[in-house]
Amino acid sequence: MKWKELEEEPCSMARTIGVIGDRWTLLILRECFLRTRRFEGFQSALGITRHLLAERLKKLVRQGILRRIPYQESPKRHEYILTQKGLDLYPIMMAIVHWGDTHMVDERGRPLLHQHRKCGKDFDPVMVCSECGEPLSAKEVHTHPGPGARSAPAAAAPTTSKTKARSRAA
Amino acid sequence: MKWKELEEEPCSMARTIGVIGDRWTLLILRECFLRTRRFEGFQSALGITRHLLAERLKKLVRQGILRRIPYQESPKRHEYILTQKGLDLYPIMMAIVHWGDTHMVDERGRPLLHQHRKCGKDFDPVMVCSECGEPLSAKEVHTHPGPGARSAPAAAAPTTSKTKARSRAA
DNA sequence: AACATACAGTTCTAAAATAGAACTGTCAAA
DNA sequence: TTTGACAGTTCTATTTTAGAACTGTATGTT
Fold it and tell me: Where is the composition biased (Low complexity) (chains A, B) (predicted)?
């Protein structure tokens, strides 16, 4: 599979993975949420090669996740700032951190704590149902096709090769 | 950076990314949550090469995210089932899907809907503060070092090369 | 008996992505 | 005049991934 194709699959997860689903991109986004804004900042914080960093930043800008804002003229320099679309990635980041806090910490405990300004307490992120407010777990959720589903009879995707992907959505 | 190193960084996000932060792994996990359990099931659903699939499944088993359970003798065959550690990835998956539903759908709308068995309604996942129950956003959260933080003065990491990563945690 | 099929891998080569280092170019400060 | 900060770009070497074929056990078919 070419990764461009991912973004066109009838699956919100595949599409999202096509955009942010690689290691460096996720780490770059971590830095964004930690307020890093400049090329050298990302590079020295992450140890990523300059080549890849330039690539990934371009992609994130193309995708509307970062905005490239000039902060000085001559030589022209820019900062990379999260757009609203980028800020909306926050639950993904927090969910990843929280899983790591739960399953990947050593004896020393969590590297970082998160304090909620509104209530002043250190917290964990909890994912709840938008309708009833109860915490969610996989077993309590039933998945069913929505309007954008690629229904089996329609469009009749050829599925030429035996090894091609069946259509599947999420 | 070698990806093994990621798992040892003092950052829950880096560690988690080291385990599940690549495209195929995330897609394999999607299939797991959609109840796929067998090698051929994953392969035909995703179109992943058999070689990589075998690799990734092994890694997920090593990490305790999947359990390999025999379902027949001679020839020995196994199913791959999510452990509790694997099931705990659900908020990450839902957060990814939800972002895609918000920012990556076409005119046709969402490919999949999610129904909460408890309340019976189609829902969106919402991330809230465990302490006060309010929805979270990046701007309302203050991050500070926890017990597992790699504090600057201690341990005195050499940081030999100019291009090596500064220590950074999340 | 001979053949095809299901299943779960393993093994190969070619193509693509990433690592690592060096280089470019503008400007400011020493 | 030299050095350093900054934001890249360019190059080669290494590592990963893609793609296809092959292995091996067992069942079902002709």
Answer: 145-162
